[in-house]
Amino acid sequence: MKTPRPSPSKRRPSRKEDAAKEREIRALRRRVGAFIVLFVLVAATLIGRAFYLQVLCAEAWQERASEQHQKIVRLTPQRGAIYDRSGEALAVSLEADSFYLDPTRMRQELELPPESEVYRAHARDLARVLELDYASVLQKMGTNKRFIWLKRRVSRDQAKQVEALTLPGVASIKEHKRWYPNGRLAGQVVGFSGTDNQGLEGLERYYNSTLAGGQRYLVTRKDATGRSFGSSRHVVKGKLGSDIYLSIDNLIQHITERELSEAVRASGARLGTALVMDPHNGEILAMATYPDYDPNEFGRFSAAQRRNRVICDAYEPGSTFKLFTLAAALEEDEITPETTIDCEQGAYRVGGKTIHDYRPMGELSAREVFKYSSNIGVAKIAERLGVQRFHHYLKEFGFGVQSGIKFDGEADGILHPASRWFPIDLAAISFGQGVTLTPLQLGRALSAVVNGGELLEPRLVHKVVNREHDQSNVISRHVERRVISPETAAAMREMMVGVTEEDGTGSRAQVPGFVVGGKTGTAQKVDTVTGGYSPDKLVSSFVGFAPAHDPRLVVVITLDEPEGDAYGGLLAAPVFSEIVEQSLRYLHVPAQVETVPSPSVDTSRPKVDNFSPLGPELLQIDSDADSMPDFRGMSARQVLRTMEETGLNIHIEGYGRVVKQAPAPGKAVDPDTRLSVLLQPPE
Q1: Is there a contact between 260 and 274 (Cβ–Cβ < 8 Å)?
Q2: Which residues are catalytic?
Q3: Average pLDDT of the residues of the chain
């Protein structure tokens, strides 16, 4: 009997089959586990991100969402005020109405299409009252916006007229408008700010960040397209700007501007400048330029009229510069006030050129050289100093660099390096030609002489007051360095007093009841066409201090291109006298009883300035065709001019200034002699 075979369906799986199935189950479990882990990680990441955004960053995102739903309109903030030293307002911010239009609200209330006659009538009324273009106003009324500016910072009269119209959708908000209550007074100093509250010129510009304060905003709601909706509007206030108190004195500024303007008009000058300083602390009490302008209407005036020329314009000072030559020589013990100087009877040859005085003068003391403004005498004093020492003192007095005053656009002036000076440069610079400076630099250097020898940093701002925190920052006196000794300064002050005596060049600077000191100046201007000095374009100037026994004021006056007799002693000195007399009376300075004694002098001396024409077009050179002229230090142009005057045929080689010539100066020459000069640039 056969044994039956088992059915395939009931066959037990082999070991291999069991192992394969087990592996498949484990793989499935791994995939499920991995999926669960991935799911948990993704869920945790999403939950963590949601927590970060919704909890940790909630404030930032809420602020961002709020910004996206808000329309922000910048408003003019309340700018800090500018006052003079006694608290008189020079620049203030006043509230003014700014009108805007809500066209959507206007349509909702009128329930009329923008094409209707009612809209046209309203547009005509607004355009008439606000002095706007009718078509522009009508076009704004037809938009779908909720906020459009009509006109900002209108006058009070215009605001009343608009309010009287009671037009739907027309509303106003308070902004601040800059106003200068004294008009033209100190206009070039204070400057002005524009409609966007940004300082554009003067102290308004330099101290803009201090004055401007924080921005104000008008906030409205807007939809996704950027259009305003709803009627909710509110103003976010910014912090107040700080107030600035100047060193300027309102009344002294007024006196200075009035006297300067009268002098410019009377003399026919192109323009004039005036500076009044306190020599002991560097504070500027008055600073004026004429013609002036009104910052309330700055758009009506040219940039030239708005320019503060006391700080921003440099010029050749002429004879007023002589006081620094003598101060340096006194400090170096090269001279005393009684040192005798031979003034060569009015003609003196330096570096191939002849310097002339206004009239022939012989031997004078250094005091008299200064008193009668002898170019020759001062040039000889400069020779005793030498180039290096003289240049050093001019740098010490602050020439050739900015003074450090806090004001945009200050000029450096020109003082060439000593290595570029030739003998004629030393002579010319000693009496104020070949060097340029600003009236401020001149007043600052003079203050160093008047106060006993200390060079101070000039100041226009006395203090800054933060209204938000009720804090006051006073700008203190700052001494940069000592330039000369008190003894030298005292000697120079005494010599300057001599200039204003009856026989001095500055006698018209005298002030009734007071002894004053000063120095006159009459400087030729460079002709921009010829490159030489102009014979008829002059700068008349006077610098001085008062009272002599206890100086309270230093004053610098310049008149540019006056007509007729343009001497500083005739035109600028009387302006000094008027300003000082009225200012001392205002400051309650008692008149002097005693006077400062002066040496006996010859009253036949001239009372006017001297100036030496050293430009190549006006150079006075004594030439002799029978002998070789002295060309050393001359330019090629000056050599050519000498050739024209003498008829000599001279071979010119190189460029710059003459450093060598053949034959030597003074040697006899004839038509067969070969004449040559070698020019080299200064090292």
Answers
A1: yes
A2: 319
A3: 83
Phi, psi of 403 (to 5 degrees): -80, -20
Domain range spanning residue 358?
A: 250-463+471-586
Q: What is the pTM of this model?
A: 0.74
Closest CA to 247 of 80, 461, 88: 461
Same domain, 546 and 641: no
Residues near 244 by beta carbon (within 8 Å), at least 6 away in sequence: 80, 81, 82, 83, 203, 207, 210, 211, 461, 463, 464, 465
34 pLDDT higher than 70: yes
Dump the DSSP string for 396-465: HTTTTS----S-TT----B---GGG--HHHHHHHHTT-S-BB-HHHHHHHHHHHHTTSEEE--BSEEEEE
Go through the chain and tell me how many residues it has: 683
Contact by Cβ (8 Å): 323, 446:
yes
- On whether both 242 and 288 belong to a single domain, the answer is no
Q: Could you write out the three-class secondary structure of 274-285?
A: EEEECCCCCEEE
Same-domain check for residues 302 and 177: no
- Rounded-to-integer distance, Cα 384 and Cα 345, Å: 20
What integer is the mean pLDDT of 229-251? 73
CATH number assigned to the domain comprising residue 79: 3.90.1310.10
- Residues 429, 383, single domain; the answer is yes
Residue 357 has pLDDT above 50, yes or no: yes
Using DSSP's 3-state secondary structure scheme, residue 289 falls into strand
User: Three-state SS for 173?
Assistant: strand
What pLDDT does residue 299 have? 87
Phi-psi map region of 322: left, alpha, beta (phi>0 left; psi -120 to 50 alpha): alpha
More confident residue, 407 or 176: 407
Q: Which H, E and C letters describe 87-100, residue by residue?
A: CCEEEEEEEEEEEE
Asked if the structure places residue 239 within a domain, the reply is yes
Q: Summarize pLDDT for 608-617 with one digit per residue, the tens.
A: 444 443 333 3
Q: Which of 508-517, 540-549, 639-648 has the lowest mean pLDDT?
A: 639-648
CATH code, domain with 522: 3.40.710.10
Asked if residue 255 and residue 230 are part of one domain, the reply reads: no
Domain stops at, among 246, 276, 291: 246
614 is a domain residue: no
CB 557, CB 272: distance < 8 Å: yes
Cα–Cα distance for residue pair 243/255, rounded to 1 Å? 25
List b or e across 423-438, with b for residues whose CB sees 16 or more CB atoms inside 10 angstroms.
bbbbbbbbbbbbbbbb
The token duo for 60 is 């930032």
- If one counts the domains in the chain, the total is 3
Q: Do 403 and 275 lie in a common domain?
A: yes
What pairs with residue 631 in β-bridges? none
How far from chain centre, in Å, is Cα 149?
36
Do 328 and 217 fall within a single domain? no
Place of tokens 């031979």: 342
- Can you give the pLDDT at residue 502? 87
Q: Give residue-wise pLDDT tens across range 400-418.
A: 999 999 999 999 999 999 9
Which band of pLDDT confidence, cut at 50, 70 and 90, is reported for residue 221? low
* pLDDT of residue 293 exceeding 80: yes
Q: Is 674 exposed, middle or buried (CB count within 10 Å of its CB: 0-12, 13-18, 19+)?
A: exposed
